[in-house]
Design goal:
about 200 residues; alpha/beta; about 15% strand; ATP-binding; helicase; two-stranded antiparallel sheet; Rossmann fold; single chain; globular; five-stranded parallel sheet; P-loop_NTPase; helicase activity
Length: about 200
């Protein structure tokens, strides 16, 4: 069922999601569930979120996620950096990691799988001892040119290209951030009840 502006107290946000997904109801539900998962770092559902397509809105969505989660709980390590033990250390205790996808091959990396599924990894800090930790961050990747088909990814196509994008949209959406957080918690509840994302199977 399509989400409406009267269902949640964040009408600008709901309108934005319906526009950037070209009215794809399942995509909006998956975005809601993934946003909710970022607020439950103790749990893993084995999926990264890939925002793809040449359309508009990917960066706005990511910026709102960062605001919702909090900058102190957000990291910015590229997938290619997961092989670096010092960069992996930046993921510890984070709830969200955002970056740009450089190549589909990055999704086949063993560390990518470990981070998505919350398996223990080893990391190091400069002039300190190495340590083990279970990643709690959810991965969000942006790409405009790559086609992504990977069982550990929720790939959402952002195909909407407005004639004149709203320049102040991010700041307008910020006014609804508390309601957007409530919207995300509703997605988390559904995710917990289903134990998988809508129209998807739980990863091994």
């Amino acid at each position: 069922m399509k989400q409406t502006t009267t269902e949640y107290n964040c009408p600008a946000w709901i309108n934005f999601l319906n526009e950037v997904t070209n009215g794809n109801d399942e995509a909006v539900k998956q975005l809601q569930e993934f946003a909710g998962s970022c607020l439950a770092p103790q749990s893993c559902w084995g999926k990264a979120l890939v925002l793809s397509g040449k359309g508009w809105g990917k960066t706005v969505f990511v910026k709102i996620l960062r605001e919702m989660v909090g900058t102190e709980k957000t990291s910015y390590v590229a997938n290619s950096g997961f092989k670096n033990e010092f960069l992996r250390a930046e993921l510890k205790d984070k709830w969200l990691n955002t970056s740009t996808l450089g190549s589909p091959d990055e999704l086949d990396d063993a560390y990518f799988k470990c981070i998505v599924t919350g398996e223990f990894v080893t990391a190091s800090v400069m002039h300190g001892d190495s340590f083990h930790f279970s990643p709690t961050c959810k991965l969000v990747l942006e790409t405009s040119t790559l086609s992504v088909e990977n069982r550990r990814c929720l790939t959402i196509d952002f195909g909407y290209r407005p004639a004149s994008p709203a320049r102040d949209l991010f700041h307008e959406l910020l006014k609804e951030i508390d309601a957007i957080r409530d919207w995300a918690y509703e997605g988390l509840k559904r995710l917990i009840d289903q134990d998988c994302f809508s129209q998807g199977n739980k990863a091994d």
